[in-house]
Each structure stands twice: as C-alpha cells, then as structure tokens.
Amino acid sequence: MNRWSQDLYGKEVVTTTKEELYKELSDAIVSCKKDQVLAAVEKARGELEAPDIIENGLAAGMNEVGTLFERGKLFLPHVMMAAEAMQAGVDELKDDMPESSEKAASVIVNGTVEGDVHDIGKSIVSTMLQTSGFEVYDIGRDTPVADFIAKIKETDANMVGISALMTTTLQGQKEVIEALEEEGLRDKVKVMVGGAPATNSWAKKIGADCYAENATEAVNKAKELLL
Ligand code: HCB
C-alpha cells in the first residue's frame, strides 16, 4: 500500500515500503517483461542497496517463476524471457554494487557444472565476490570437470565455487571434489557449493567446505574460510 507524506515544503509525496518494492520487483520478473523489470529496478535503486534488490526482489521473482513453471502455469519460453529480464536487471545494477576498499589476496574460481546451463545465480555470486575484493575467475556454465581443474591450477586458486541447479547435475559437484583429490589439490583449495538443489547436508556428504544459500552467504562464507 502506498503511503502519503509531506516533504520539507509541505508537498505531498508517495512513499513505498521495502516489502512493496520487493513485491514490485518480483512481480516484474513474473511478468517476464524486461521493460517492467528495468522500471522496477529504477524505482527501487533509490531506496534499496543493489544486493538487496537482487536477492530479495529479482531472485525471489525467479523462484516464483520456477514454481509457476513446475505447476504448468508458465512454459519454457516464459522462463527464458524471465531469465533474460532478470539478467538485464542484474546488469543494470552492476555499477551500484558496494565496492570493498580492501583487496583480498584470495583467488576464487566459480562455475556451473557440466550439463547444466543455469548461470544467473552463479554470475551474481561471482559479481558479489568480486566487489567484495576477491579475485574471481568465472568459468561459465556447462563446464567440464577438467576445465575447473585447469583454471584452478592456472590461477593458483584458493577456493572453487561450484554451482548446480538440477538434481540431475548435482553429482557434478562431487566429481569436481574427487578430481581435486586426484590432483592432490584438495588441501589447498576450499570448496563452496551452491544452487537450488544443494543443501548443507549435501555439502557435508560430498566433503565440500561449505554450502551457500545465496550470494550474500557466499561472500560471508568465503570471508570466513579465506580471510
Ligand atoms: Co531451468 N530448471 N531448465 N532454466 N530453471 C529449474 C532449475 C527447475 C528447478 C524448474 C522446475 O522444474 N521447477 C528445473 C530443474 C529440475 C531438477 O532439479 N531436475 C529446470 C529444468 C528442468 C530446466 C530444463 C531441463 C528445461 C527443459 O529444457 N525442459 C533446462 C535445462 C537444460 C540444461 O541445463 N541442460 C532449463 C533451462 C532453463 C533456462 C535456460 C530457460 C533458464 C536458465 C537461464 C540461465 O541461467 N541463463 C532456466 C531458469 C531461469 C530456471 C529457474 C526458473 C530459475 C533459476 C534461477 O536463475 N534462479 C529454475 C527454478 C528455480 O531454481 N527455482 C528452473 C534465480 C537465481 C538468482 O537463483 O538458485 O540460481 P539460483 O542462485 C542463487 C543460489 O542458489 C546461490 O546463490 C545464487 C544467488 O542468490 N548459488 C551459489 C548458486 N550458485 C552458487 C554457487 C556458489 O558457489 C555459491 C552459491
């Protein structure tokens, strides 16, 4: 509900609560319309921090799209349009990300496992780790295990972030950990796993160092493990 208040000069202005802004952002994603998403982002950016807009507004909308897709209320072309609109919203906010003044010495390789094309969440995580001062190498989506290992060796990385969005590709996270062990790199490289089907207990089961539910948590866990 919009509220009316008066500004310094007694002029009436409309104010919107945080929850209303989150809902407008989420509804814009569900509409699958890029223009609507960009308008909602423009309205929210004066009131909310960029990570808040992404996590609590846009990502919440994407989750709703997933639920509607599951229930047969939206179809794949809608999901693709919503994903494009989400990407446009995130791109718009890139320059607003709070930059950390301290440069972390740690290097993080971040990618989505082979067979999985979902990369929106992984890319948000990369951006937020980068703006938090980490040196990040985003190796994209549908990434073979060998490419994870090659990039970790090439960059002398201290951590790897492994994203998987489908139950059918979750196993790929375990395969990267096994390859790290085979290469004798496991003691040197911390492992973070993420993505909707991953959980804390899955992370423990496969021997990862942590699970991150969202990008804010990914930054906090990386700081805990590396700094
Ligand atoms: Co896609 N898809 N999809 N999809 N998709 C899911 C994932 C389902 C759950 C939808 C459903 O059925 N309910 C489902 C998977 C079911 C399962 O588990 N088996 C599914 C399916 C089945 C498919 C296809 C097979 C559909 C088809 O072709 N019939 C196909 C996959 C093809 C393939 O990969 N080989 C497919 C395709 C697509 C697109 C292309 C249309 C599009 C992806 C576009 C893109 O990423 N460039 C898409 C999308 C958008 C989704 C949903 C709706 C949203 C995903 C998303 O972007 N969420 C998703 C439903 C859902 O997840 N609820 C659905 C928003 C982001 C911000 O959240 O969870 O990705 P996130 O990331 C978070 C968090 O997990 C964490 O932080 C991020 C930021 O907060 N995190 C990390 C993520 N990675 C991390 C890494 C770290 O190191 C640390 C934290």
Automatic annotation (TrEMBL):
GO cellular component annotations of the record: cytosol
Lineage, top ranks: Archaea, Methanobacteriati, Methanobacteriota, Stenosarchaea group, Methanomicrobia
Every B12-binding N-terminal domain range: 12-105
GO molecular function per UniProt: cobalamin binding; cobalt ion binding; methionine synthase activity
Protein name: Dimethylamine corrinoid protein
The family this protein is said to belong to: Belongs to the methylamine corrinoid protein family.
Native source species: Methanohalophilus euhalobius
InterPro entries in the cross-refs: Cbl-bd_cap, Cobalamin-bd, Cobalamin-bd_sf, Corrinoid_p, Dimeth_corrin_MtbC, Met_Synthase/Corrinoid, Meth_synthase_dom
Keyword entries, A-Z: Cobalt, Metal-binding, Methanogenesis, Repeat
Residue ranges annotated for the B12-binding domain, each copy included: 105-227
GO terms of biological process kind: homocysteine metabolic process; methanogenesis; tetrahydrofolate metabolic process
This protein's pathway: One-carbon metabolism; methanogenesis from dimethylamine
Keyword Repeat listed: yes
PANTHER family: METHIONINE SYNTHASE (PTHR45833:SF1)
